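Supplementary Methods, section 5.1.

A reviewer requested that the exact input to the structure prediction be made available. We therefore reproduce it here, unchanged from the version used in the analyses.
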Amino acid sequence: MSRSIEDETDTRSVTHWTETYLEHLQARKLAANSLRAYRRDLEAVGGELAELTGTSRDELAMESVTATRLRSAFARHAAVRAASSVTRSWSTWNGFFRFLVVEGAVSGNPMAVVPKPRVPEASPKPLQGEDTPERLLRLVSQGARRARDPWPERDLAVLSTLLCTGLRSAELLSLTVSSLAGRPGERRLHVRGKGGTSRSIPIEDALDEVIRSYLRSRQQRFGERLPGDEALFVDHRGQPLRRGGLQYLVRQSLRAAGISDRVHRGAMVHALRHTFATRLAEDGASAAEIAKLLGHASINSSQTYIDVTAREQRLSVRANRTHQVLGELAPGE
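The structure derived from this sequence is encoded token-by-token as follows.
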């Protein structure tokens, strides 16, 4: 008979409530990477609290986690970490205490007195160059990516899906064969996004055919039926494509197409998502429309693409040499 969390830990301890909270998050079907990140943040700050109170982390009692100690623990935690990491940890602990308040484990949320770093909003980092996405797809489809076991149909399908839907890496990797559904001309991709939320993205006929071509090549390679619960994208051994394999595929494809220098530093797979969103903004999509397609919880993130697009348009207009000449001809006051 398995032992419960209550049997294994002191119900007054931070460790007990950490495990209870993670169990709660797991029930919401969060991605494994997200759960690991939550655990790291909770255990890292918990370790600082334990040192401050002179106890082991497993013996640290919730009642000893005062606002003053929590503020000191975060100060120590922040000393060797980037602002973005500290902000994520702050959000994790804020969510943790909201859960504890609901459960009646604490009387209030002390995170209001813990300073949170101000992280500047990241600017979109799409692929640079007007024709870069098309060049990438065209060359990959022609087999430009040299590999020991080339599979251009798969590579094209992966890159096309990223560029035409704006999926996050984790979202793409979680797709199954049954995620693609609907009648011809009305096809949609059902996506499980951040926080267990779901959304449905329209699929145009061209992308639908690219994916179908890949699935036909997959059946020819492995000679298998494709049940709906099978991973949509697989590696060269027929196993579900993983994060490292996806990053390698994108990196090598960019290199083969000769456009590695058109990717912002650190963007990689996310650059394709940003390209999708930026083009939506350029074509006049509203922040609400972009938010719905990208799975943003707030339209503020989506508004960034519109603001950046407007700024780039103005800079382009300003660079027009005719305006420079007008500046010379315009009469002064």
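The two ends are 89 Å apart (CA to CA). These observations are discussed further in the main text.
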